[in-house]
Amino acid sequence: WLERESACPVDNIKLKKDDIFPDNFTRREISQQRTKCPNIIRGCLVELSPLDVEAHLMICEYKAPELPENEKVRCSFVDVGCDEKFEDELELQRHLEQFVQKHLTMLSQAYTKMMVNNNVASSSSAIAQQANFWDPPAKNESPTLSQDENLQGLLKALYEKIIFLEQKTREQDIIIANMSEQISSYNLSVMKLHQRYCNGCYLWYFNDFKSKVNAMRENPHIMHYSAGFYTSANGYKLCVRLNLSPKDNNYIAILIHVMKTEHDNALDWPFSGRLSITIVHPTQPFRSIKETMMTRPELEAFKRPVLDLNPKGFGYTEFALLEELIEQDFIYNNQLLIKVQAQP
Question: Which CATH architecture has domain 201-343?
Answer without folding.
Answer: Sandwich (2.60)
